[in-house]
Amino acid sequence: MAADEITALLSRLSLPSLPERAPDTRARTLQDGQHPRVDAGGPAYAVFVGREPGVYVSWAECLVQVKGVAHNSYKVYSNFAGAERAYTAAEARGLTCTAEERASDIRRVILHQRMEPQDLALCLHFLDDPTSKAMAYGASRWYVVYAGLQPGVYLTYHECSFSTSGYPGAKHESFDSLDGAIGAMERALASGRAVKFVVQSDM
């Protein structure tokens, strides 16, 4: 029986007609290097580290990617465009990976390299980086990585987390002012507490 015939029959029986099927606006994750846009309202979730990194338009989908995943990283944004902008920026910086890749990197740390006071410019580099600003998206805290993949001052918790989460001996701290964060970084460099973790490269 055709759909219009079913609707007519339900109408005669004084029952509600079949609802129209809503379009599928679920954001798909990366496939073949492409990240398709979707026109979806409401919040969206950027999964930076999880089972399958990408942008999702529901908490349920995001949860599938991060629940039970050690050292996962994600953030909710007010709309899909903001989440996609942040995810694309993070991907360009190499700040996205699967859970398996993350675990592999943690196992491959081979050296702790002390940084010197003259490295301050490097530690502050990402404060003015366009990709960092895209990820920050209105953030109002600053994060200092004292020991991790790249010691420095960051605009977003994800950058901080990517450099520290899961790595034995990693240290970080958050600040509510930029001056406070920079001062802490300067003191860490002067006292020898700024340490870069070197990961063995793939052969």
From TrEMBL:
Top-level division of the source organism's lineage: Eukaryota
Spans through the membrane: none
A Pfam family matched in the record: Cauli_VI
Chain ranges of the Ribonuclease H1 N-terminal domain: 44-85, 142-181
Identification of the protein by name: Ribonuclease H1 N-terminal domain-containing protein
